[in-house]
Amino acid sequence: MEKFLALSDEKQTLIRNAALSCFSQHGYEKASINDIAKMAGISKASLFQYFGTKQNLYEYLVEHSSTQMKAAYQEQALYANADFFDRVQQAIIMKIDNLKKNPYIAAFIISVAKEPSIEISEHIKDLMQEGEKHLHDLMLRDADLVKFKHPEDAPLLFRTLMHIGYGIVDEIEGVSDFDRIVCEMENILKMLKYHFYKEEYLL
Amino acid sequence: MEKFLALSDEKQTLIRNAALSCFSQHGYEKASINDIAKMAGISKASLFQYFGTKQNLYEYLVEHSSTQMKAAYQEQALYANADFFDRVQQAIIMKIDNLKKNPYIAAFIISVAKEPSIEISEHIKDLMQEGEKHLHDLMLRDADLVKFKHPEDAPLLFRTLMHIGYGIVDEIEGVSDFDRIVCEMENILKMLKYHFYKEEYLL
DNA sequence: ATTTGTATTGACCGAATCGGTTATTCGTGA
DNA sequence: TCACGAATAACCGATTCGGTCAATACAAAT
């Protein structure tokens, strides 16, 4: 492990991305060290030099990804003061930004949760649920309910936005056009805000 | 192949589902005949007795899945007459019903589109795009535009609903509670209809 | 230029698994 | 009891697996 951490940041990222991509695509068992080494452009022996065993590499990736994920959550807290729709928009932009900057972590986390080996996957599932609750509390605040034509719509609207978010993240996948998606998302939010808010709160 | 088609329908489905599940989880290369045979509860030799080669089995699954998918599209055409929101609701219910009855085909089709071997995957991508366009034309009809408070919202609202649909399908995954999701979907549509339609079209 | 220490790797290991074959066993109807 | 087709256990050579190790490439120090 120290051997790996002594590498330059770029090389670390290169190797991590290759491993994250392989593991998230194929799962722990079917992902092979050979594939990862080839994708990273280094020799298989180096990987074992850095991480010792396949399981060690995997566990390192799990920890690195969860801390990175938690950090992303922390960042979102900064924008807790604006209006409901603005907060949602900020959260989505940050999510997509994070996805652009670090494309493999989200897919990897999801793949870990699907692993049959229960030990780690349960822990990750907890982390994801916790993150979702965190997001819920951060977005949906009583102070905004008064702005709705029908305040009782708010929870269902929030769940709707979550569905949209999942759908959009799923559609992104490859090197898709982020800006176009962000733009469409902004238009969707603007449209929904217009219809769900009372006139006097449409700024 | 004739050997396989001579089997009882239940056994055919059992074997198909095992193969679809393995191929969609692991992709063509990493999915092994051993895994499929074990999951289907038959011997590996039988699989080769039925299909000859791995590639043959895969191609059979591709064709079977595309015809099944096309059949599902045809069925949807029956509901082309109702109101916009009713059509969308019907389409989602049918989609989820089909997903419940035939859980592995949708995931398999998506996995085929992701295959690096371009030959088949391109054909499947075309089929998916075609299906999406078919759905679009089926749902969004000029006759309904007059019911909207702002007719220009309709296309974006439709895209929003597509995002929601993707998100929900993605959330279903396992043996989740279909009825709960259908119910939530109905509530979401009712809410959106209320806010987007003119009062006189709320029946 | 030579030595030294280290980062990287090609070549290799036994074991497992791959796709595919074959010879035997099993089940059933005559 | 025999015969026949369906199913499979055992096996095939080839490849790949996770992992090791000795040789090489390379940079710093002398």
Percentage of β-strand residues of chain A: under 5%
Query: CA-to-CA gap between the ends of chain A?
Result: 54 Å
How many runs of DSSP E, i.e. beta strands of chain A? 0
Alpha carbon gyration radius of chain A: 20 Å
pLDDT average of chain A, as an integer? 91
Estimate the global geometry of chain A from the Cα principal axes. elongated
| Structural class category of chain A | mainly alpha
> Would you list the SSEs of chain A in sequence order as H and E?
HHHHHHHHHH
Number of helices of chain A: 10
Oligomerization state of this entry?
homodimer
Structure in words:
By secondary structure, chain A is an all-alpha fold. Chain A has ten helices and no strands. Chain A has helices spanning 2-5, 9-30, 33-40, 44-51, 54-76, 84-101, 103-114, 118-139, 154-172, 178-196. The radius of gyration of chain A is 20 Å and the shape is elongated. Chain A starts with a helix and ends in a 7-residue tail after the last helix. In chain A, 24% of the residues are buried. Chains A and B meet through helix 2, helix 9 and helix 10 of A and helix 2, helix 10 and helix 11 of B.
